[in-house]
Amino acid sequence: MDYKILGKCFSLNLPKDQNELFQMPIKKISLTTLYFIKSNFSKGLLWIGLKTGLIDKVMILPFKGFGNENEIYFLGRVLKERGIVNSSLEDGPWKNFKKMYKRFMSWEIPGVKIKASFQHIEQTVITDEEGYFCVHLKSPHPFSIDAPWQEIRLELLDPVVKNQEQVTAVNKVFIPYKNVEYGVISDIDDTIVPTGATRLLTMLKTTFLGNAHTRLPFPGVADFYQALAKGNDGIESNPFFYVSSSPWNLYDFLVEFLEVHSIPKGPLMLRDLGLSREQFIAGSHWEHKLRQVEKIFEIEKNLQFILIGDSGQHDPEIYLQVVKDFPERVKIIYIRDIKTSRQTKLLAIEKELKNLGVPMLLIKDTGEAAAHAAAQGWIPEAAIGQVQAAAEEP
């Protein structure tokens, strides 16, 4: 990496035509100015970090992906090594806060090349200004698949710090293999785990002071999701995909949360909350979730899906649009009813979905969803009792 270039970048690159800038609407002026300030501040901070040695080691953080027999898709990020280890039940609020601080106060590495290698193909991609990269491998010949989870090798091709050793990572991607009956796409916040997503202070407290052990899922979720993963044949082969408006900074936290509570692993589709040229927050909740769900539908083109969400943050509206865009691909929509003031709207969506041939079930607890899934033959009858017993636990 050229330190001189980074140093030169530490200047406010406002539009050359200042008259054009001042002719913009006030809101546009504010957003444009803030974006350039933010962008150049980040570049300057990175330059200082590299020159002073505050950034002495970098890492590739890949996010689990998915694919089919001819293509693979996933995202990742290049960051300063953060040194975050898994949490324990004994960790207190201060220790949890320090880990969360490291997740959000990260040093991103822009403009470096990453090589992805899988079987007979390779792809080289470049990180954007927030350190993100996207790998979308496409092959004219089918991949050789002997298991649902495949490993992709990643290598950083550019030097970032002095005396840098080889920087590599291995990512895992899901490719449908055998005995797949359906896929499951689930929201996380207030669907799997209570977060108070509709109450800002509650959400911030639970996010920054808790950890993967102290944050508890809704009763019965783990048992129900395990039953869905196994399906009616009892073989754990049905894939899970998690779509959330939580930031990518929480990725490792959420992966650990799923593992600790025995919730089926799967790709997580999160979002960047950074300031962009067009928006104060990069993408609205609606746009982000719809785009990610439909990306899954596009790549997993041979699967039908069960969609799971909650009534608090427009999951029903998003899933309705998915049903319209992908007819005959959705088996059922389960919506955890968190009792908002949107009941009239929910009933209207339920009626519209019914006319499209897709039922939407508003559920009060996970046991109700399990009973319905068993009645449809998607999970065995024997699973109902276990899920309902867990759902009734205090």
Automatic annotation (TrEMBL):
Stretches assigned to the Phosphatidate phosphatase APP1 catalytic domain: 182-337
InterPro entries listed in its UniProt record: APP1_cat (IPR019236), Mg2+_PAP (IPR052935)
GO molecular function: phosphatidate phosphatase activity
This protein's name: Phosphatidate phosphatase APP1
